[in-house]
Amino acid sequence: MKALNRCRNGWELLQKKNNVTNPAAAHLVTDQKTLDELVERLSKESVLAFDLEADSLHHYTEKVCLIQVSSASEDRLIDPLAPIDVKVLAPIFANPAIKKIFHGADYDMRSLYRDFGIEVVNLFDTMIASQFLGESEFGLAALLKKRFGVELDKRYQKADWSKRPFSQEMLDYAMKDTSLLIELYRQLEAELKQKGRLAWVEEESELVAGVRSPSREGELMCLRFKGASKMKPRELAVLEELLRFRDEKARLADVPPFRILSNDLLRELAEKQPRNNFELVGIHTMSSKLIERLGRGLLQAIANGLAVPQDKLPQVQSGRRPVLDRLQDERVKRLKVWREAKSAQLGLGIGLVANNTLLEALAEPGSQNISLLKRWQREAFGDELASLIS
């Protein structure tokens, strides 16, 4: 009965905020005056829900293409590609008196800072919250369906949000992403308080709020290629040239690099190192059209990689874990047994309790390693761990 009432409340909230006389198109903010008025209203709220839509699957340089925001009384869609100054939202995001609700905020934090220099204070991530409540499915669609009986249309998850104008269906989809987030937050917060885990989620959310995209300037592209650690230095040199070639083509065409050539194909080219068109034909995923369009450039990139001097070849650091001494190895085993039991006791995934890197660090000699724990971990089971490793 309680679940049924939640579903009814969810539908009633959606209908109240987004009724048929108030279509989503009317909620789209595309001019500065409307945005300024919205910011003034939002500044008076204590809780706001946000989401972003971007175009990373469709363009070379990804960008934020839509900002969804909901308060307890209204839903709005802000178009950052319109002639408006999105940075007027910065004081709201920085205001510690306003709780900002996101779901899976890692990417959003990176994007807001990258595009607008916006930093978020007082973040609450509903995905993290659901994980700390032991939810087995913590995607937004699964949570909204379970708690409110609302289903999200997944057709637009990979849409090109940089295209204008928006279809009515896309706007409706975007508004649903935040329209129930505040109610979801309230439910999760109440359950976390009951379990004594609210501070845990607040600490984890605070850490996510500080996440930023690392600088890649001067870094070899091949070193962050999946599977690079298993490739030979000469293959890596060829791969580096192929990646640079693909990246330049993608930049000129304004598409993501994977739309030019797949990673699997680049790996095969780097390993087989064809020298001419005849050998290119032998690559089973190379179509005649692809050879005609890119063959000359690919062969030149391969030749450049083969010409790299031996002492200049890329080197990948081994991804293997360091060999542990006997004492440390025994401690890690004890800690893993403890983690399994603690995970079952708390109803949490083992990765939330403590990851392998943390356990190995804790197993090293020296009690100072307890300082590696987060605040909530020290409070929840710090004494247990200290006893185990002493």
Automatic annotation (TrEMBL):
GO terms for biological process: nucleobase-containing compound metabolic process. It comes from Citrifermentans bremense. GO terms for molecular function: 3'-5' exonuclease activity; nucleic acid binding; nucleotide binding. SUPFAM superfamilies: HRDC-like, Ribonuclease H-like. This is Ribonuclease D. InterPro entries: 3'-5'_exonuclease_dom, HRDC-like_sf, HRDC_dom, HRDC_dom_sf, RNase_D-like, RNaseH-like_sf, RNaseH_sf. Residues 232-312 form the HRDC domain.
